[in-house]
Amino acid sequence: MGAWQPLPEELPAEVRHFVEQLRLLKDRTGMSLVALGTRTAYSKSSWQRYLNASQPPPRQAVVALCRVAGVAGEETERFGVRWELAVRAWPREPVPPVPPVRVPAGGPVPGPVSGGEPAPGAEAAVPAAYVVPAARGRDGYEEDPTLPWWDLLDEESSRQPPASRTPRLLLYAALLAVVLLLAAVVGAVTLG
């Protein structure tokens, strides 16, 4: 169970500590990575990347591992704090610069011919405004862990003062009441 490959020496202390604690938690389950993958929503290869510090795990993966390991309460919160510290310190690969876009001077931009293929000898030119550098890390994965939408709602609402949230909630409640009333009227008219 404890035959892990050594972590890279250049890892920040927060990341190293987090991954070591994650490995201990995984070992506590007594499961293989395949079994862990079937008990959580994350594949064996994802767990390999997370536990070898190749990629930061999403918060939900850490929560799923805690659940499978039978961890609850304060210990789960500690893993959440360790995750936040590790994600902030996780090494980022520099984003490669976007190559310059060649646009021919004095003429239309060569583009696809009727078949959708570029014209022979023409470069596919894209206006620079449409070129967006991919914010991807190793193996084409996003560098920042993906948070579920419900976590993003909590963050957004915590930034707003309670007074500014109340009118919006009242508006939603009023809209819901109108929709329910309208449905009741339509149902009464339809059923006679």
What does this structure look like?
The protein contains 7 helices and no strands. The protein is mainly alpha-helical and 192 residues long. Helix 1 runs parallel beside helix 4 (59-69) and helix 1 (13-29) crosses helix 5 (74-89). The protein is extended and about 75 Å long. Residues 123-143 have low confidence and may be disordered.
Quote the distance from N terminus to C terminus.
69 Å
Low-confidence runs:
123-143
Pattern of helices and strands = HHHHHHH
Shape type: extended
Number of helices: 7
Number of strand segments: 0
Largest sheet: none
Mean pLDDT: 75
Estimate the strand proportion.
under 5%
- Rg calc: 26 Å
The structure class reads mainly alpha
- Give helix % range: 40-55%
